[in-house]
Specification:
By secondary structure, the chain is an all-alpha fold. Helices cover 64% and strands 0% of the residues.
Length: 83
């Protein structure tokens, strides 16, 4: 009986392919796509009944001129504050 027991290798060479380097444009495109997906999910969550976007949509449908006036006044207030 031999006392030399072969140890299993801790690293397996060649089983995983080498990762290919990504170009800067491809990374930017993937990052932009991920950001768009997160924004889309946030908008969808806000459109559920009782959520702020749902309420805002209903108010704008019922009183479009009042909503426009309100948005105009908020825009003026923010515009004057930033000057």
């Amino acid at each position: 009986m031999t006392e030399n027991i072969p140890l299993s290798p801790s690293i397996y060479d060649g089983l995983d392919p080498e990762p290919q380097p990504k170009s800067g444009a491809r990374e930017a495109f993937e990052t932009l796509g991920a950001a768009a997906d997160r924004a889309k999910a946030a908008i969808e969550a806000g459109r559920r009944p009782g959520m702020p976007l749902s309420i805002l949509t209903n108010v704008a449908r019922e009183a479009p001129l009042g909503s426009l006036l309100f948005a105009l006044l908020i825009g003026i207030a923010i515009g004057r504050r930033t000057r």
